[in-house]
Structures are given as structure tokens and as C-alpha cells.
Fold these 4 entries.
Entry 1:
Amino acid sequence: MGSDQRIVRCARVSFGRDEKVDPERDKRLIRFLFRHRHASPFEHNVIAFEGSKRDWLNILEKLSIPTVQIYYSGGYIWVNLRNAINSLEHLPEKIFEQVKKSFPATWSIVERKGEISDEELSEVPYTTDRVFLQERIETSSGWIGLVDKLELGTDMDYYTFIVECPLFVARQWHRHRFGSYNEISRRYTAYDIKFYIPEVLRKQAKTNKQASVDEPVEEPYHSEFLEEIKRIIKESHSLYERMTEKEVAKELARGVLPQFMKTRYYWTVPRASLDNFITLRTHEGAQKEIREFAQAIREMVGYKGTDKKSRL
Ligand SMILES: Cc1cc2nc3c(=O)[nH]c(=O)nc-3n(C[C@H](O)[C@H](O)[C@H](O)COP(=O)(O)OP(=O)(O)OC[C@H]3O[C@@H](n4cnc5c(N)ncnc54)[C@H](O)[C@@H]3O)c2cc1C
């Protein structure tokens, strides 16, 4: 699952330009990422190959880097490209072949330890994603798109999504640690700043201190607060723009942007963690905005119940 371009997309989301394709620049970006060990964008490519539990344990036994993660599930050994690069010498020959074929530009860079000239790079092939998004679902606070999936009927089948949601939803989402994330960086870019404005200001629940009830606060407060929210968002955005125009660093100026601001990230996640997300975040105790995303995921790729195998 993935391509040379997948690395670039997940790196370029930092400045919100992940849809652009320019093979020459893209290959140079992969080289830059490799040389500077900006490794997380490599994690959104996943390789699965047939093997027994014994084959898997044999690979694990040989590993000398304690952080390398290689998984076994349903007769397949699963490894993402970052971990594959860190354990290449212990993986079967056929995996080298698969890496070379699926990620030819990346492989050329890795093989030469990043020491590859622009001229040499221009000669190597570059693989791209088949489509930008396979499917997209809107929610009340943003949208989610399915980029890719590798489904072999195991607990470790992999999925990559793009999510655009308010900051407070992202904060909840990123607590789901078993998966990989690459997110827009508001240190880099002031591009495409958007805000979620809820249609309904729900009331605080009386029985659950964390929750809301599906009932708007009374008028005239509802209308007044909504107007005030819009005004504050407009004012804080305008202050942000004035500050950045006068060269205040974006990494500081962003401090005035409210939590209603939207962020955008790639999320690559195995089925076991995805099912755990769906269970926890479709539950009525979860916040409505994230619940809608969990329901959208369920609609797109289903729920297989793999998380129920864990006791805790
Ligand atoms: C309604 C609700 C309210 C919440 N409130 C709060 C809150 O107030 N404050 C707060 O901080 N968080 C809160 N959370 C977040 C919650 O505590 C979890 O961090 C979050 O739901 C991610 O769940 P997870 O750890 O199972 O998922 P992941 O981190 O994606 O992990 C997936 C699975 O991998 C395994 N795993 C991953 N990392 C480890 C590890 N280090 N050790 C052992 N096993 C691991 C576990 O089997 C786990 O189920 C809330 C969540 C919900 C749904």
C-alpha cells in the first residue's frame, strides 16, 4: 500500500499542499527527508508478505534496533516502509524486490544512503497514488477521505485517511496512538485557515460532566452566543493576519486562533486500532463531532470487531 508520492503527500500536508505532483521536486523532497531523518511520512506506506509466525519471530530475533515494529497477523508479516528501511537486511529477498518496485525513487535514495545527485535522481522512476481520494464523507465539523487500504482479512489490515476537523477533535483523535499521523503545521503556513462554527450550541449534560445533550441552549442566548463566536473568530483571525504581516512568527501568532480552527492530517492505522477507535468514538459518551467521524469511517470501511479480542 502506497507509493513514492505517498511520502511526499504526507510531508507536504505540513504546508497544506499535499495534492501537488511534480516528480522532480518530489524526489528531491524524499532525499531531503531521508537525509534529515524526517521519517514519519514514510510510515504511511505498508508492506505485507506471506509468512509464518516462526518466520516473523526469526526476523524479530535478529533486530538490533529496539524501536522497529514488525507485526504478524493472519499468515502475513506487516511492516511499514520506515521500519522496512530500518530492518532491510533481515527481511526476505522478495521484500527488497517489492520495495524496489513500489518505491523506486525512495529505494534509489536509501540504497545510496541519500548520496544521489539531481541528475541521477531525474533518471529514476517515480510512483504515484492511483487516486487522491477513494471516497469522502462530510461531517458537521469537517470531512474525512479514504486515501488507500490494504485488506487481507487480518487484524492488521491497513487504512490511510485524510481528516479535516476542528483542533479539539484532533486532540481527542491523536490520543489513539497506534497509527501514524502527519499534520498541517501552523509554524509553516497561514494557508487556508478555516473554522468550524456549530449550528447548534448544545447544552451541558447533567449526568455526565464530560458530555452534552442534543438540545440547544435557550434563546436569546443561543443566537447571541453564536453571533459572538463568529465575531471573536473574525477578530482573532484578523489579529493573526496583522501580526504575520508585521513579521510576527507564525508559530507564536497562531496562539490567538481559537480551538474552532480546523486542522488537517493523514492517518494510517491498522484494523485493530481502527476498530478500537470506532468502538470508543461511536459510543454515546464520545463527543458528537468525533462520533460523526467514527460513523463515517464505519460507513466507508466497516467494523470487524478485532478490538474485542483485547481484555483492556
Ligand atoms: C469518552 C472518552 C473520554 C476520554 N477522556 C479522556 C480524558 O479525560 N483524558 C485523557 O487523557 N484521555 C481521555 N480519553 C482518551 C483515552 O484515555 C484513550 O487514550 C483513547 O481513547 C485511545 O485509546 P487507546 O489507548 O485504546 O488507543 P490507542 O492508543 O490507539 O491504542 C490502541 C491499542 O494499542 C494498545 N496500546 C497502545 N499503546 C499502548 C501502551 N503504551 N501500553 C499498552 N497498550 C498499548 C492497546 O491495546 C490499545 O487499545 C477519552 C476517551 C474517550 C473515548
Note: The mean pLDDT is 96.
Entry 2:
Amino acid sequence: MWVLASKTLSSVPFPFLYNPIPNRHSSSSKLKLNSSVKFEYETERGLDFETGESFFRHESATGRDLGVLAAALYKKSKARLRILDGLCGCGIRSLRYLVEAEADFVLANDANDDCRDVICRNLSKVPRGSDDEPRWTVTHTDANRVMTECYLQREFFDLIDIDSFGSDSSFLRPAINALRFDGLLYLTSTDGYSSGGHRPHHSLAAYGAYVRPLPYSNEIGLRMLIGGAVREASVLGLRVVPLFSYYSYHGPVFRVMLRVNRGKLSDNSHYSFVSYCHQCGNSQTFHGMNSVRLVAPVAMQSPLSSRGRFGQDLFTTPPILQKC
Ligand SMILES: C[S@@+](CC[C@H](N)C(=O)[O-])C[C@H]1O[C@@H](n2cnc3c(N)ncnc32)[C@H](O)[C@@H]1O
């Protein structure tokens, strides 16, 4: 598993794009025509677009870069690319998937229908195609509903991008269902409280990981997210392989790109316990569901069981995913 640090990439222009917004809106500018209509313009990797009143953070550009890179590689190897951008905001990801990854089709969805005009204006830089074979479509429904309807109609996607707030793991099952075998699932969590171990019951409910405060909470946040997806997929008889993970301090934001395939995990070695001693700083991983038996004598004999935080937790909690 790669863990990448945040870094801003330089802009790469796309001169072939129709650009209805002159260059005076260089990187981020606001133009208020009246109190009710607000236009905000941004530029990312050479693409100009509007954000309007939608939720947009330019700090997330690297996360979008990585999604686009994975999508472009997928298109190269499979010669097809259908994408569902489930929580698209102003539609910048959808636009970048269409332009940079040359997606054949993007379904851009955001529950907030106030974003519709902005999304449509942004995507209209790419010709929409015919009614029978559109390049892009915009919808405004709960992402779970869109994905479930696609699944029921057997309209599967090569890449599903879930750019959600907090630790909303309710998207996992519908997203996995609507994904083609060997497809890519790009997930997000912004729940720093859970990864920091401050809401163990919440992380347990969301991802099946009882997380306590650890000095490497950023890594734990990524593993927590991967672990939740692994568990959901395994219920459906599917296997998840992490391709990359990315932590960014703004938010904080945890992103993981997963490949989902047929076939169960070969054994339970992907489930582990992580122990950490707050006194000596020693950290240890116990692999497999037999960990409890392995850990018991260790914890009984060491100061962990009486003074360390994790000696007892090891016996009482489900595992957090440790090995990918
Ligand atoms: C983090 S923002 C998306 C940002 C966008 N992907 C980008 O890269 O700029 C999350 C978006 O999800 C939308 N949203 C929240 N709950 C949703 C749901 N259940 N289904 C679909 N969209 C939802 C919000 O309106 C918001 O625009």
C-alpha cells in the first residue's frame, strides 16, 4: 500500500477545450452579479470551471489528480470507462474524468439540485453526445438511490467515486453492487475524530474498527476505511485490493482507491489487531482471528494489561484492518 503525502501539482493546460470564461479569472475569483446569483470561478490543471454555491475545496486537487490518473490507466488497459461521480459538487471531477481520462460516459450526481446549472455549465465544455449515447448525464438524487437503481437495471460502472463527508459508510454496499468486476472504487472519509480514536463506538459502527488514540492515526484512518470496504465486499463474496491510499491534512481527508473482484479472501489474515503501549511506544500487530489466543499470554504478562490502553481492548474489540 502506498501512502502519499500532499503536494500541489503544476497546472497542465488543455488548449483544445472550449473555454467560455476568459482568463481574467485566473486561479480563484469571485464575481457577484446580485445577491442571489453568485458565480465563482476556479482553474484546476488548466480547466476553467464554476463552483457557484457548491461545496468545493481547491486543496482536494491532488485527490482528484489521483482519481483521474487511475481512471486514465484503467481506460488504457480496458479500452472502456464508465464513471459514476456519486457526490459531484460542482462537477469538477466529472469534467476531469471526461477530459483527462477520456471517460466514455460519466453520470454526475449530487443530491443538491441547486448545483444543477453549475454542473451542466461545467460539463457542457464536453459535447454531450446523442440521446442514445450521451457522454454525460446529471442527476440529483441520494447517491445510494442512484447506485441501487443502476444495479437493479444492470448498468454497471468501471469507476465509482464517492467523495462523501465524515465517515458515511452507508455508501459502501450500493457502490460495490453497482461496480463492474475488476472495477475501481474511490472512497473518502473526512472523519478525523474516528481515526484519532476519539469516537471508537462510531468507527466500530461505521467500519467495524474499534480505534483508540494512536500516534499514527493518519495511517489508521486509511486502514479503517479500507477495512470497512473489505468487510462489505466479503459479505457479497467479493475481494478488495487497495491500489493506493492518500491522506491529506486539510479536512483531514482520507482517500483510498480499491479494485473489487470476484472471490473471497483466501483466509482471515487481512484482519488483525494493533496494539500500542503508551509507556514504551512499542507497537505490535497480531494477525488473524486467532490473535486473541496469541495475545492473551502476552497481555497477561506485560504491563499493557494493567496500565497500557490496548492490553484489554485487544480482548474485547473487533479487529482493525492492519495488512492490505
Ligand atoms: C465533498 S462535496 C463534493 C465535492 C466534489 N466531489 C469535488 O471534488 O469538488 C460532497 C457533496 O455531496 C453532496 N451530497 C451530500 N449527501 C449526498 C447524498 N446522500 N447523495 C448525493 N450527494 C450528496 C453535497 O451536496 C456535496 O455537494
Note: The longest strand covers residues 179-189.
Entry 3:
Amino acid sequence: MTESIILTPFCCRVVNHIFSRSLETDQVCPNGWAHHGHSCFHIIDTPTPKWKKARSMCQRLGGDLGKITTASENQFIYDLLRKQKTVTDYGVWLGLHRKKDQQFYWVDDTPLSSYTAWGQGEPNDSAAHGGEDCVHKIGEKRSWPFQPGQWNDVPCSLDGIVPSYNTPVVLCQKKIDMDVLSF
Ligand SMILES: [Ca+2]
């Protein structure tokens, strides 16, 4: 009896908060996620040396690493990245990786579409650190031979290669349920 008295007000406050927020703002993405196209994007503003760790961080939030298939999306993500407190040389991890067949796939297992934004001479799969099978999006110009916002393949672990403060932050994506958009 005592337990239900304590829990019920908390439960109702949370539900009412979520419901009133969606009605007031017509918001289709969770708080802190940005809406673009049929997706919600969120950048975890933490430099993260390992691509797999970055991916699990997104999965814990109910999403996955981000996928970019148009120039508009690429620009949107770049603008979102530049709004973060932390913008590193290595920018942000993307949900794109090279599999054993040597082709690149997004984390939803789709191959690269016709749109790509590789930097000049990339992907080069440099052998300097045992190959480059994971992809990030450049944050700052600095010493890069290509432009901010472009893509580059790098080793999936940058531990011992890049100072941890300069490693990519994490781009997460959730697909929006189309029923929500249409109602
Ligand atoms: Ca490369």
C-alpha cells in the first residue's frame, strides 16, 4: 500500500511530461535528438578511441551508429557536429565499416549507396597500423589533406595511434516510426 502511494505520482508525472511535450512541440525525436528526414540523430560528445565501443554506446540508447546517404544529410550531421562542445580533428564515428569481402557496409548491412563524401585519396586502407576498416567524418581541418565533413577510413581502434582527446565523438541514429510522422 505504502509502495503504490509513493510510486504512482512518479509514474504519472513522467507519463504526463512525455505526453504534454509531444503535444506542445510536435516533437518526433526524444529530447536531445535532432530530427532530419526519417531519423533522429544524437551526438555523444565524448572522444571515443574504439569504433565498437562507440557502436555499443549508441545501441545502449536504442539506436545505432549513424548512416549518411545524401549530401543534405552529410551537411546536417556536420552542422550538428560543429554545435558540440567537443570538436576533434577526428570528428565523429560513422556507422560505416569494411567487412571481410573488403567492401564497405553501413551498420544496417546495406552497402554504400551512390552518395559518398570521401576525402581526396580515401579510403586508402593504409597499412601503417594494420589496415583501416572503420570510417569517421573529419571535424577540423588542421593537418588533414582534405576538408572538414569528408570521410576517411582509419583503424577501428585508435588506441596508441591518436591521443584519446582527439579521437572521434559518436554519431547515433534512430529511425522514426513512420506511423508517428503520418499521424
Ligand atoms: Ca584512410
Note: The radius of gyration is 19 Å.
Entry 4:
Amino acid sequence: MAKGKKSFLLLNYFKPSIYLESYKKVNLESLKNSGIKLVMCDMDNTLIGWNERIPTTDVINFVKAVYAHNMEFVLFSNNIRSRVENFAKKAGIKNYFWDCKKPLLGKMKLVKKLMPYKENEVVLIGDQLITDVLVANRCHIKSILVSPVGRNNGESKFMQFLENFIFKRLAQKNILHEGFYNEGELGGNYEIL
Ligand SMILES: [Mg+2]
């Protein structure tokens, strides 16, 4: 019994604040009204497929929209410098971090030092429970889980297995169901944020 309870608590580390189909569904107005000042975002399979290099018009417009809402944008990727830097420059992203080793906290602490926002003023958007959502919960910031851009996401078999395993456990505990998003087409008011 005690063991069951403990694993239930651990599962909460993989629970996003919001679950959306895509970054395109993010309601920036709502985030701003919730006090968010810094939007951090994963790159691969969140903004772009792992085998693509060039940001789409939608990505460029999204980044512009974040800045237009007077929020900061940080690209926060586990990928290598050349790929992250190239993408960031083409997308008009001013602040970007590569080799972040999510879910480890090292780079997150660096961001916090460089951009000293409060925990409740930061949100991280990403497609993976075991990297993005976990790192967000470990440092007590909000998270938005989105469905991966591509079907084949370029992750190792083991990482895919782990991700699927956690999704199944979250569904069993009625915490999160894959494909059951918090919002409809127009975006809601993020009551759970
Ligand atoms: Mg990703």
C-alpha cells in the first residue's frame, strides 16, 4: 500500500500543467494574464521535426507573438550547439541554450541566473514527459505538454519505451490520457495553470 502511494506521487512529476495538441494552440494572452513572463520551449518535435532544419512560418510567427506579448522566449534544447543555434537564428530567437541535458537541472539553473524570473512566471513547452515535463516539475515551473510533431521522433528505442510506459501509467491513474487535450480549437482559459 505504501509502495503504491509512493509510485503515485512519483507519477505526478510527469504531469504537465496543460496538455495541448501543438504549440500553435498555446494561448499567449492567457499565459500573460496568468503572470507568465518567460516562455521556454523545447525544439525537436515541439517546434520542428527531428529531421527538419528550417523553422516554418508558424514557428517564426509564434516566436514573434511571444515577444509581441512582452514575454521573453528561450529555446531550451538537448540537441547540439550547431543545430540549435542555426534554428534559433533563422527563427529570430534571441536566447537559446543547447545541450541542456533535460531532465537534469544544470542548464535550468543557468537560465534562472541569467534571467531571474520567479518560478510562477516561467512556463516550459515540450513534447516529452521524461525530459521536458520532468525538468519543469523538478524546478517547480509550469509546463505545457504538446504532441510530438513527427511520428518517428528520432529518439532511441529505450527512450520511446520509457515515454510510452509513463504515458500508460498516467492513464491508469487517470492523471493524463494521450490525445485528450485540455483545449479545443480556440484555446480555453487555462484554469489549471
Ligand atoms: Mg522534444
Note: The pocket of magnesium ion is lined by residues 42, 44-46, 126-128 (CB under 6 Å).
